[in-house]
Amino acid sequence: MIHATILGGFGGQGLLFAGQALAQAGVDAGLIVSWMPSYGPEMRGGTASCTVIVADHRIGSPIVDVADSVIALNPPALAKFESILAPGGLLIVNSSLIEATPSRADIEVLAIPCTDLARAAGDDRLVSVVALGGLLARRPIVSPEALGAALRELVGRHHPELVAADLMAFSSGLEAGSGAGAGTVATPAAAAEIIS
Questions:
Q1: pTM higher than 0.85, yes or no?
Q2: From CA 109, how far away is CA 15, in angstroms rounded?
Q3: Fold of 2-194
Q4: Contact, 9 vs 128, CB < 8 A?
Q5: Do 39 and 11 form a contact (C-beta atoms < 8 A)?
Q6: 46-105 confidence digits (pLDDT tens)
Q7: Displacement of CA 146 from its chain's centroid (Å)
């Protein structure tokens, strides 16, 4: 098994953090991972992307020419990364910010209002965590429990007061990706049940 995911959007949308969480969940599950960020000199509002490869064997290169999944959180990310998605790959589109329809018919498209769900969970910066939930609902690269544990570890280390919001955002994305409660925010109880 090898799965390459590209997350693309604006700086400040939590892309690099979400990539780290996915990579940490993979490491905790005993898998081999590669995490490679790419961003401009701007801190917030500039272009940013992150590539995460999760595999059960050695990874030849962190450079991805063809991705298995793409998370596009803004229109420039959709324009840049849709073309390198493998046929049959998963394209997650932040429908809160992207009105364009993807042009390819040979891919699976999942539109989630990531920004709206992140805001409802308590923080606009959790948009990438919502998208991760959608990703794992459709492509079980790691288990939701492993990702939940990685979020608890990474967020809890410096901001334990934000763990509940991260788990709610992730749970909302899981629900949206599975079709159960698409576009609604998970309750704290639901978040705890899904990823405890």
A1: yes
A2: 19
A3: Pyruvate-ferredoxin Oxidoreductase; domain 3 (3.40.920)
A4: yes
A5: yes
A6: 678 999 999 999 999 889 999 999 999 999 999 999 999 999 999 999 999 998 888 899
A7: 14
Say which residues have a Cβ less than 8 Å from residue 101's Cβ, sequence separation at least 6.
none
Cβ contact 22:147 at 8 Å = yes
Distance of CA 112 to the CA centre of its chain: 11
The 3-class secondary structure across 149-184, one letter per residue, is HHHHHHHHHHCHHHHHHHHHHHHHHHHHHHCCCCCC
Q: How far apart are CA 113 and CA 17, in angstroms?
A: 19
Cα 83 from Cα 85, distance rounded (Å): 6
Q: Where are the domains of the chain?
A: 2-194
In whole angstroms, what is the distance from residue 11 CA to residue 74 CA? 11
The DSSP secondary-structure symbol of 185 reads P
> Distances from the Cα of 10 to the Cαs of 38, 47, 49, 76, 101, in angstroms?
11, 5, 8, 9, 19
